[in-house]
Structure to design on (125 residues):
């Protein structure tokens, strides 16, 4: 058995456990503070909303607003929408919220993808 490998794995899992925070917002909504940092030096946040038989993973509608509050940069917005859709997320064009419907088994991967997507989008601006 590789003790060094096991120790590195254990330390990595412990770090992630201590730096990935979940906050109950209401009976159906959980806010997730990830350890990922955007181009502004701020933590990335995701939201989990319980629906009937699935979960909605979302940026809460604030991320594109943060990058372009008055939505005046149409080139940025169009590029961001192409990337969001290209990574498998949907977007509400009225609110700018991007989201994905997932099962509980798909939730961890979808959260990771959403957080990475937000980091990537932050470097477009």
């Amino acid at each position: 058995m590789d003790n060094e490998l096991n120790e590195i794995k254990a330390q990595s899992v412990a770090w992630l456990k201590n730096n990935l925070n979940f906050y109950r917002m209401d009976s159906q909504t959980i806010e997730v503070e990830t350890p990922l940092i955007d181009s502004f030096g701020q933590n990335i946040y995701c939201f989990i909303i319980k629906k009937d038989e699935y979960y909605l993973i979302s940026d809460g509608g604030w991320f594109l607003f943060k990058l372009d509050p008055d939505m005046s940069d149409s080139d940025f917005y169009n590029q961001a929408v192409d990337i969001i859709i290209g990574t498998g997320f949907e977007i509400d064009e009225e609110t700018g919220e991007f989201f994905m419907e997932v099962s509980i088994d798909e939730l961890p991967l979808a959260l990771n993808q959403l957080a990475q997507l937000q980091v990537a989008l932050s470097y477009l601006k």
